[in-house]
Amino acid sequence: MANFTKSHVPRFSAEVYQNPYLPEGGREVHAIVTVTATGGGTTGGRPVPGRGAGGPDAGVVIMVDCSGSMDYPPAKMRGAREATAAAIDTVRDGVGFAVVAGTHRATEIYPGGGRLAVAGATTRAQAREALRKLSAGGGTAIGTWLRLTERLLSSAGAAIRHAILLTDGRNEHESPQELRAALDACFGSFTCDARGVGTDWEVKEVTGIASALLGTADIVADPAGLTADFTRMTEKAMGKEVADVVLRLWTPLGAETVFVKQVAPTVEDLTGRRRESGPRSGDYPTGSWGDESRDYHLCLRVPAAGVGQEMLAGRVSLIISAPDDPASATPPRPLSQGLVRAVWTDDAAASTSINPQVAHYTGQAELAHVIQQGLDARKSGDTDGATAKLGRAVQLAGASGNEATAKLLAKVVDVVDAATGTVRLKAKVAEADEMTLETRSTKTIRMKK
Q1: How far is residue 380's CA from residue 382's CA, in Å, rounded to a whole number?
Q2: 439: part of which helix (H) or strand (E)?
Q3: Phi-psi domain of 194 (left: phi exceeds 0; alpha: psi -120 through 50; beta: other)
Q4: If DSSP codes are grouped into helix, strand and coil, which group holds residue 204?
Q5: CA distances in angstroms from 281 to 250, 256, 270, 348, listed in the order given
Q6: DSSP result, 321-373
Q7: Residue 437: which H helix or E strand, with range?
Q8: Would you say the pTM of this structure is higher than 0.85?
Q9: Residue 330, Cβ neighbours under 10 Å: how many?
Q10: For residues 273, 276, 281 and 284, what is the CA-based torsion angle, rounded to 10 degrees?
């Protein structure tokens, strides 16, 4: 396998969108940082930083729910086998992979022996044969699946470590605390895309797993859709070229960070995941990157100042968090960086103007929030609260042009007037439609520039 060369690293750029002007005494600065990586996801999966010859550059583990409920209907287990086989076919040559069967315990279905197989024609054929062993029976303890996956991926030493988790039910055979402990233990070890098949699983559980492990979550209501979904997920994982990228935020003396949120392609609050990386500097995890672009919303609080004064409110850098040689005294060099400014003015028009990017993503974050509030109110029987929140969601989705979310909302409410957010709750809503809206509520649209 070829050694990593610098030319294989995607090029990162960071663009800052903000209104830097504050009124006299103003303290809060908002900015949208668009981070774009190019030139990395089209290289056919070349080796990544941290790996040379002698090992896989990437590892993928597929966790398949094999609890008893996967046999009801039988199409779920059949769909899971076919989807896993399709994902294995999508894994490129040289990548490490394994399949884990999950019940109230975790079992290596392939290759076994606490290791990953190296993808090739022979191992793919062996894995497809091993999938015949997947059968339904037993309970559900997802934390055990995650811990086994962490051991398998860590054993290979691959730089890009990815997992796919499929479940059809609730995590009933371990406590929420046990699942949380497993997620904490796995954080930083691999990313995980989680999927719920059917409608008997818990949305907050599945989305919480994906959120904790920097992956995506979605519903596959019809098992027939699993193969296409697994194929897309695996193709995307194969396009990742750089792992463990962090967004490093430095603020000057007297300034502080109020929040850091990813706002595109999904809303994800990263504020609580900050890890101190130096004086007045903190790192926020972003996971692995290929050819892609993401947006982040920063809110900083600066010391009050008078008209005419100006300061650097913050500096954003993209850093590969794990250097090749941990003993090296050389600090990692930024892949890219952007500056956030604060300028105090007595021009009211300048200081009260809201940057269009900031306004757009503030609305998208509110949209995700009110959908969750509205669905929670609906489940608790609070009709008035649900109507108000989901009406606001319809208004926000229409104003921002988020057509996908608007269509999902229309399956839960009858829209009387989208512009004013006037809606009526539908008397009957298909469970799959409600779960789809909840699962996809954090998906945002980019602002057209």
Answers
A1: 6
A2: helix 431-439
A3: beta
A4: helix
A5: 4, 10, 15, 32
A6: SS-SSTT--SPPPPSEEEEEEEEE-S-HHHHH---HHHHHHHHHHHHHHHHHH
A7: helix 431-439
A8: yes
A9: 7
A10: -20
DSSP bridge pairs for 166:
64, 195
- For 432-438, what is the mean pLDDT? 98
Alpha-carbon gap, residue 59 to 62, rounded angstroms: 10
Residue 229 has pLDDT above 70, yes or no: yes
Is the pLDDT at 169 greater than 50? The verdict is yes
Q: How many distinct helices (H) and strands (E) make up the chain?
A: 11, 20
113 contacts: CB under 8 Å, gap ≥ 6: none
Q: Where are the beta strands (DSSP E) in 350-432?
A: 413-417, 422-425
Instruction: Give, in degrees to the nearest 5, the angle at Cα 237 between 234 and 240.
Output: 155
Q: How far is CA 176 from CA 167, 173, 191, 418, in A?
A: 16, 10, 20, 39
Distance CA 148, CA 154 (A): 10
Two tokens at 316? 């954003």
Distance in angstroms (rounded) separating the CA atoms of residues 301 and 297 = 14
Per-residue confidence (pLDDT) for residue 332, from 0 to 100: 78
Both tokens of 385, joined, read 């609260």
- Which one, of 220, 216, 182, lies nearest residue 201 by Cα? 220
Residue 146's φ and ψ, nearest 5 degrees, are: -65, -40
pLDDT band at 10; cut points 50, 70, 90: confident
Identify the residue whose tokens are 């989680």. Answer: 194
